[in-house]
Amino acid sequence: MPTLQDVANLANVSTATVSRVLTGQTVHTENKEKVEKAIKELNYKPNTVARNLRRKKSNLIIALMPDVKHQFYSEIIRGIEEEALKAGYNVLIGSNTFESDQELRHFELLEGSQADGIIVGTSQVKQELLEEVSKRKPVVLVNGHLTGSNIPSISIDNERASYVMTKHLLQLQHKRIAHVMGPSNTMLARERLKGYKRALREAGVEFDKELVYEGDYFFHSGYEIGKRILTVQETVDAIYSTSDEMAIGIIRALTEKQIKIPQEISLVGFDDITISKYSYPSLTTIHHPRYEMGKKSFNLLLKLLNNKKIGKKHIFLEEDLVVRESCGAAQST
Length: 333
Prior knowledge:
Number of helices: 13
Keywords: DNA-binding, Transcription, Transcription regulation
Number of strands: 12
Organism: Priestia iocasae
Protein name: LacI family repressor for deo operon, udp, cdd, tsx, nupC, and nupG
Shape: elongated
CATH architecture of the largest domain: 3-Layer(aba) Sandwich
């Protein structure tokens, strides 16, 4: 297997000149042409691993998501991976599953220069930890942002999207709207609750904390909350679930008790995962541009890796209200 020295000997230049050509640095045109010719003749393959170690660069990034099996996050990961591949980066995918020890193992890869940067799907990762890591390695947040933080982020405006959904239900003449939120210690859940409250306030509908239920965004918690709502079903005319998975669980709970959706109670979700279109009834929801968020989060990280300036720190993508059967306003689309 030809070496760097073999290329230098054939081109009659120094190994330093060959290295400069390989790394794209400025080299006299004649020498550059000789080196490129020698590389081609010898079919030389540079040892990128060794070169990256010398430069303390791994061409590896970490995508740390709350649940990599969840369709919501798998679409974000797909966008990250496609853009990373184009830029010559590999992606190590990790799931924090709300366990701090597991998070720390991934952050240790950054500290040991085994990874160049990290994209974090915001969930319950401690802000202090992210702030500390961002002082030493590039960090980008996807699906949320941190108040008062300079860590760049890509997301939709969750408060606005939640306001739009709640307003839609109010326009359908619903007044008693149960709000099924995610973990209350996450900014994502708090922002969506804030949008719900704002829509109620503008419509002159009094906020009732007894209509707020805390889940975890997954099927089972929606199912359990659906059974709890059934105990006060006569006082609730609509349910706003802040994830489609919880909404599907709620559908199961209501269907078991033969409660008709939307005839007896309307139901809406959030995220527009694939199953929401094929559930029965099909689910009115907020379309979340997950794949695009993944792509843009990597490109933002790439700018940081290349020491380029970033304009807006917090980038909001547009969401869409997708009206289907479950709220009684339209047929399936």
